[in-house]
Amino acid sequence: MGVGINVEHLNAWYGTTHTLQDINLNIPANHATALIGPSGCGKSTFVRCLNRMHETNPIARATGMVKMGDVDIYKDAQPVQIRRRIGMVFQRPNPFPTMSIYDNVASGLKLNGFRNRAILDETVERSLKSAALWEEVKDDLKKKSGASLSGGQQQRMCIARALAVDPEVLLMDEPASALDPVSTSKIEDLIFQLKSQYTIVIVTHNMQQAARVAENTGFFLNGKMVEFDSTHKIFTNPKDKRTEDYITGRFG
Amino acid sequence: MSTNPFHTPPATSSDPGRRAPTNFQTRRMQINTARRWFVNHLVTVLAILSTALVIAPLVAILVYLLYMGASSLNIAFFTHIPAPVGENGGGMANAILGSGIVLLLASLMGIPVGISAGVYLAEFGRGKTLATAVRFTADVLNGVPSIVMGIAIYSLIVMQQKHFSAFAGGVALAVMMVPTITRTTEEMLATVPHSIREAALGLGVPKWRTVLSVSLKTASPGIITGCMLAFARVAGETAPLLFTAFGNQFWSFRLDQPIAALPLQIYVYAMSPYDEWHRLAWAGSLVLIVMIMVAVTLVRIYASRGILKGAS
Question: Among residues A116, A126, B66, B230, which one has the fewest Cβ atoms lying within 10 Å of its Cβ?
Fold first, then answer.
């Protein structure tokens, strides 16, 4: 089951650039939360702060409090432990090119030293089924390289890979922006199904997508969160003028 | 008139609003086309000629070696140690074995150090002063003449131990292998997309494990090529061995004693005044080249299989 995330006074820097300025946000458990905003507004940095991927960049730094359930992820835990509980799907599909489909999906377990064959088999099958890819690849799980799949299939494989470590939260950084409309709609269906079991945070440039999959939406602009509310309210009756301008396409 | 708003009527000569189609048959155009045809074929021929120029020496060396050396090759060459001066026959069995031992030693020392240094440069040392120093040192080391390397190891190891040894020869060759391997490893790791590393880190895989199982594995074909290049380069080195392994006319399996090596043996025999020794030197050169080619090919085949296996 998913857990909620509570963000208070989160600030982030790249070198001297203040990318995120005092973000406060409550992400409810087992819901999909969309983050929208123009390019460079800090959405991606924000999700990368949630699983401490931000700090893998040597010039990056973050302060503030991010609580996942009861755990303060910047105080009470190691980055590695946090990333096992908060899965991430990236903008472009990034399969491991040297690994088969099976090994790609099992990689989170295998690379963390997990070796039990039966459980690996079972996990790979369950994860691929959750990611709606099982039927398409079940016959060449170990024969085909993960990189030989189509873009949309690769992205669903990456989702399966993230699900295989059994996370509580799934961060998706523009998961469909490199995909065609058919693959995009498959990914969206998937998000719809997954949110009963996981807390999902999805960054997107596509406002229709946010409206379709997310209960709540946050609007980011220039490193600040301008508005956070139910998706319905953001798109029909935004409080802030800037949100309204953005969703109606008057700037950006 | 068509009702389709996207329909454009075909151009007709009676339509004054349209430019006439470009005439490709003017005199100027014809000259231009002929010139392009000529330049195209000239450059193609030049490219083929350059390729031939590059391959020709290699082929010439191989053919000449076969011509000069093959006749002196016999079973004794591979099973006997050198015969005393004036006696016919004898072989280079001890030198072949000695080269094998020294190269194995060099690889065992040079490859791990070289790859580790490359991993440090690419994965951990980005932007650090130490990394810049290591990179600079590797480049300088790469340019050190091999005879200087031999003298350096001579004073560092041979002078200290007070005797020549296979070990000292191995060290000299290892030091020559390190810079090539380090820089190739670094460059190959730099070609691994950052997104793959992020994928592993995002799954909660520790950094060291990501480097070993993701970065290195993805870059391994290039790194193996680099190791093979370094190996092939030092396999034929004579100068670093002159003051270290020193050479030996007899069987020796000990690492703390002087040991024979093919390039040394070839050098000594080629310099000698005896025709018989000259013939053996030719045969030795042929064997050396073939051994390097076989070793490189075997590793490549084995490595490509290993990578395929890893993908299954």
Answer: A116
- C-alpha A84/C-alpha A193 separation (Å) is 21
Q: Which amino acid is at B95?
A: A
- On whether the CB atoms of residues B264 and B241 are closer than 8 A, the answer is yes
Does B156 touch chain A if contact means CB atoms closer than 8 Å? no
pTM for the whole structure: 0.81
Q: Rounded to whole angstroms, how far apart are CA atoms A74 and A62?
A: 9
A17-27 and A224-230 beta bridge pairing: unpaired
Model pLDDT for residues A99-127, shown as the tens digit of each residue: 999 999 999 999 988 889 999 999 999 99
For chain B, give every domain's residue range.
75-304
- Restricting to B residues 116-135, those with a Cβ less than 8 Å away from any Cβ of A are 126-127
The CATH architecture that domain B75-304 belongs to is Orthogonal Bundle (1.10)
3-state DSSP percent of chain A in helix, strand and coil, to 5: 40, 25, 35
Under DSSP, the state recorded for B55 is H
d(CA B227, CA B173): 13
Q: One-letter amino acid identity for B19?
A: R
Q: At residue A202, what is the residue type?
A: I
Interface confidence, given as ipTM, is 0.88
Between B114 and B22, the more confident residue is B114
